[in-house]
Design brief:
mainly beta, five-stranded antiparallel sheet, 1 helix, about 45% strand, globular, binds thymidine-5'-diphosphate
């Protein structure tokens, strides 16, 4: 399954906005060790262009609109993160690109591991080699 979205629980307080929440292991299929976010990017920004050997992540966009392009080496799919209650689970061995559809959109990421540059695959051909023969969900 290349696209795995989750609906983030959102509680609206009349006239006072909405609180959205998810919990590690309960609402996403892993514990969360690291959070980071990308902000201040102009419209048309392309980021990503890598996969991870082990890292599992959930991506969400609390403000704006960001297109996420996923590729597991066999199929590709696009998902638009354009609502604060939409989350996208990105499993390991998934090539990803993120495209800013609106300036200043904020991309938030919660990950199951600490930052480790050696977990990245940044070369697309190396990624294709790595997924060859793997059993994909
Ligand atoms: P990178 O993961 O390549 O971001 P993107 O794919 O969105 O361009 O990270 C960008 C830079 O930030 C890179 O120099 C590594 C650094 N970085 C950290 O120091 N810690 C982190 O947790 C992350 C995700 C990145």
């Amino acid at each position: 399954m290349i696209i795995q979205t989750i609906s983030i629980k959102s509680v609206t307080a009349q006239g006072m906005g909405t609180l959205s929440v998810f919990e590690g292991s309960h609402d996403v299929p892993f514990d969360i060790k690291r959070i980071y976010y990308i902000h201040g990017a102009p419209k048309g920004t392309h980021r990503g262009g890598h996969a991870h050997k082990a890292l599992r992540q959930v991506l969400w966009c609390p403000y704006g609109s960001i297109r996420i392009r996923l590729d597991n080496g066999r199929e590709k799919a696009d998902v638009l993160l354009d609502s604060p209650d939409k989350g996208l689970i990105v499993e390991h061995y998934m090539w990803r690109e993120m495209i800013w559809e609106k300036k200043d959109s904020v991309l938030c990421v919660a990950a199951d591991s600490y930052y480790d540059e050696s977990d990245y695959i940044r070369d697309y051909n190396e990624f294709l080699e790595a997924v060859k023969g793997k059993d994909l969900d």
